[in-house]
Amino acid sequence: MRKNKNFNPNNCPVTHTLNLIGGKWKPVVIHLLRKECNRFSMLQRAMPDISKQMLTQQLRELEEDGIIERKIFAEIPPRVEYYISDYGKTLLPVVEAMSEWGLKDMDLNHKNFDPDSCSPI
Hints:
Layout: H1 13-21, H2 26-34, H3 40-46, H4 52-64, E1 68-73, E2 79-84, H5 86-89, H6 92-108
Antiparallel strand pairs: 1-2
């Protein structure tokens, strides 16, 4: 394999994708939102190891990047729900591929895994 001397990770499409959805929590948030886990409290219950502050930060970043949308309902108390935007839906095949690969790898390596652990509670 020949090395590309002009390789710039900032111009790499994989780096670009990881900048948008990389990290520990963003792919999980997207996965849960596609499973209709769309309220803050539902997301927090489905990810008990995430702090409120971190979940808020991740949701804000995903919203700023146009991957999710936030809908505020004029109720008392106010209700907020999150949805994957049309732009964000273009990432669903990537998240689905990650999920499928992870399931196969976990099965191959005999890791204890509860498939329902990534489902909304």
